[in-house]
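Shape matters. Shown next:

___
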Amino acid sequence: MTKKALLIIDMQKGSFTPKTPRYDTNGVVKKINDLTDTFRAKGYPVIFIQHDGSGGNEFIPNTESWALLDDLTTQKTDIFIDKYANDVFYNSKLKITLDKLNINQLYITGCATDFCIEATVQSALSKDYNITVVKDGHTTGDRPHLSAKQVITHYNWVWQNMIPTKGTIKVEDFYTINASL
């Protein structure tokens, strides 16, 4: 039986500053909020992941930069997990939490496409999860050689063309996912 969970990665104030603008922030936040509503209504876990960068003296827990964006909707029933590297699974409680809940299907959203989302997708794939990346539910900033939109398009293509291990990987837009849950 498929047990689903929604991961929302690094949607923290410190990643969304005037110096680090992100592509379609308002649209991504709206899609994440709509998905969290659907997941909660279906009884599926909603997991917010926040980068704890204490080692680098940034994104320190309980500071403004560490806090989630004000426009994100959270509930007391949601799960909150700290992460310590681009890969959410590295030294965090995510794997233990997913195992405890018997989760085998991950829906992945958040920031930044080319760093923490990419690292988490690769790691989850090697752990045999069934993965659905929300095609229009992740964001990043412009890079020296690519616009943010190009980065997002590139990684959506990469993920659609990856060879999975025992799990599956697909990239679907918000509307398709929300209608199929």
Notes: The chain has five helices and six strands. The beta strands are 4-9, 46-51, 79-83, 105-111, 130-139, 169-172.
